[in-house]
Amino acid sequence: MPIPTDKRGRAKPSDRAATLMAVPPTANVYIEFQDLLHSRQVCRSNFEQKKFYHTANIESWLSREKDGVRNVTTLASQIYMGPHTFPPSSDRILENPILFSILVEMGCGHMFDVFSRSIASSETLSNPFLKSHYESIIAYLKNEAVTLPKKYKTGAYGEVIDEFDQNRWAYVSLPIRYQGQATSYPQTILLPFFYMKKINSGGTAMVYHCKIEVDLVEPALRKILEPSMKNDPEHGSVGTTLEVTAFGH
Q1: What is the DSSP string of 224-245?
Q2: In whole angstroms, what is the distance from residue 12 CA to residue 178 CA?
Q3: What is the distance between the alpha carbons of residues 34 and 46, in angstroms, rounded to a whole number?
Q4: What is the pLDDT of residues 16-29, one digit of tens each?
Q5: Among 53, 51, 98, which residue's Cα sits nearest to residue 72?
Q6: What is the C-alpha separation between 117 and 54, in angstroms, rounded?
Q7: Strand, coil or helix: 101
Q8: Hey, which bits of 90-225 come out as E strands?
Q9: Other beta carbons less than 10 A from residue 241's beta carbon
């Protein structure tokens, strides 16, 4: 059940207290979420051995209910305890779950309210040019003297931004879906293939033989590629893999 909020989208104190009372004191959802991020269910590596996340499984976990309370509600309540202000509503976090996940992994989940003002959606995370967004975030963090985790120097909000900018790319790997026209992506975006080998080249493009875990492929495209499904010895525990041909410059 979502937490009722005030005009700023923050949970009201009485409602937050009621939510915390509904959660067993021994249930540390924060640790459970960190474990999820490092599990094989979510954390993958591509042919370059670069880490990336299967974000659909993250979103599914955040939305899941336990004892009538969504995981995201319990997680936000634990993060915003102590010196931090009351959490944004669960619905607001679920509108931008990837931003929230990046910050939680960094130990900065309590900064979601600030970051989400400038980075309003997951689509913004794949924009390589976020300098103006970051400047606004730093200014607000400084003005509000937002608490920093111990791993950062006092007042080193720029370090938070540097880590965020580096980490975000693991959450925005290239989407593998069916689309009728070519789409360009920034060079910094990760390719989710666990195998990729050039097999031919021409005047305008190179042809690659790629393999990808089937759960990373959008359902409509997955159905089209069903005839190419094969079991892979190294990735069988995850499921069937797809062999596809990709074109790139």
Answers
A1: HTGGGEE--TTTTTT--EEEEE
A2: 43
A3: 21
A4: 333 333 334 334 89
A5: 98
A6: 25
A7: helix
A8: 195-201, 206-213
A9: 25
CA distance 182 to 238: 29
- The tokens for 205 are 């493009």
Burial class (CB in 10 A: 0-12, 13-18, 19+), 98: buried
Sheet of strand 241-248: strand arrangement: 195-201, 206-213, 241-248, 229-230
User: pLDDT digit string (tens) for 144-158?
Assistant: 899 899 999 989 999
Q: Any idea what DSSP says for residue 145?
A: T
d(CA 223, CA 149): 45
Average confidence (pLDDT) over 11-20: 36
What torsion do the CA atoms of 203, 204, 210, 214 make, to the nearest 10 degrees? -150
User: Going by C-beta distance under 8 Å and a sequence separation of 6 or more, which residues neighbour residue 224?
Assistant: 178
Cα-based distances in Å from 5 to 64, 91, 212, 221: 21, 10, 42, 40
> Under a CB-based contact definition with an 8 Å cutoff, are residues 157 and 140 in contact?
no
- Alpha carbon separation from 28 to 35, 89, 162, 194, 215 (Å, rounded): 11, 19, 28, 33, 28
Identify whether the C-beta of residue 207 lies closer than 8 Å to the C-beta of residue 232: no
Summarised one tens digit per residue, pLDDT across range 162-215 is: 999 999 999 988 777 766 555 566 677 888 888 888 887 776 677 888 888 888
246: enclosing H helix or E strand: strand 241-248
Phi, psi of 102 (to 5 degrees): -60, -45
